[in-house]
Amino acid sequence: MICLLIWTPVHLQKPNVESITNQPTDTIEDSSPTAKVDGPIEYDCSSLIRGQFLCANLDIDEQTQQPRNCNRDTQKSTQWCEAAPGITCLDTHNSSFTKEIPCKWTNGYHFDTALMLSIFLGMFGADRFYLGHPAIGLLKFSTLGFFFLGHLLDIVLIASQVVGPADGSHYVISYFGAGLSIITGNEDTAKKVQSDWF
C-alpha cells in the first residue's frame, strides 16, 4: 500500500484594516481564508436593537397626536429611522430604513375634554357619556354622581388615565405631553422568592 501526501502552502491575504475597524467585530463572518473585505458591510436593519438606530423625525399626525397610520390591532406605525454611524442597510444601501415603532391608537376622545367634563359636569355623568359609558353615565345622572363620591372618584380615575374611552382607544394627548403608561406585573416580572429572605 502506497500513501502519497501532498502539501500545498496557503497564502493568506491581509484584509483591509480601515474598513474592518469601523464595523462591529461580532458581525463580520469570513469563512474563507483568502477573503478580502472591501467597502462597507451591509446589515439587515430590521433586526437592529435599541441603541443601534434612532427614529428622530417621526411623522406625527396633528389630529391624533400619534405617529401617522397607527394600526388599531398591532398598535404599531411604520416610520423612517436612521441607523447608527457605520451601519449600512441592505434594503436602502444607506443608513435610512423603515421600522415599526409602538404607537397608541386614538379615536378622537380628547383627554382635556374628558377631564373638564368630569370636573365641572361629572355629577351629571357627562364625562361617562362622552367616553361611551352610557349606563354608568345614567346612574351618575340619576344619583347626582353617586352622591358626589362617584364624581370625585371619576375625576381621579380620568386624571390618572385609568378610565378611558369605551372602544379601547387611547386619549388624544400631545405626543410629547403628559401621557401615562400603566405598567402591570405578572409571573415574568414579579420577584421570585429567594431562600435567604426568611
Please describe the structure with a list of short key phrases separated by commas or semicolons.
198 residues, two-stranded parallel sheet, 6 helices, 15% strand, disordered N terminus
Explain what the structure shows.
By secondary structure, the protein is α/β, with parallel strands linked by helices. Among the domains are: 39-104, no CATH class; 108-172, no CATH class. The protein contains six helices and seven strands, in the order αββββββαααααβ. It has helices at residues 17-21, 111-121, 126-131, 134-142, 144-147, 149-159; strands at 42-43, 53-54, 76-83, 88-89, 96-102, 106-110, 170-172. The strands form three sheets. It has a three-stranded antiparallel β-sheet, with no helix packed on it. Helix 2 (111-121) runs antiparallel to helix 6 (149-159). The longest helix has 11 residues, at 111-121. Residues 1-37 have low confidence and may be disordered.
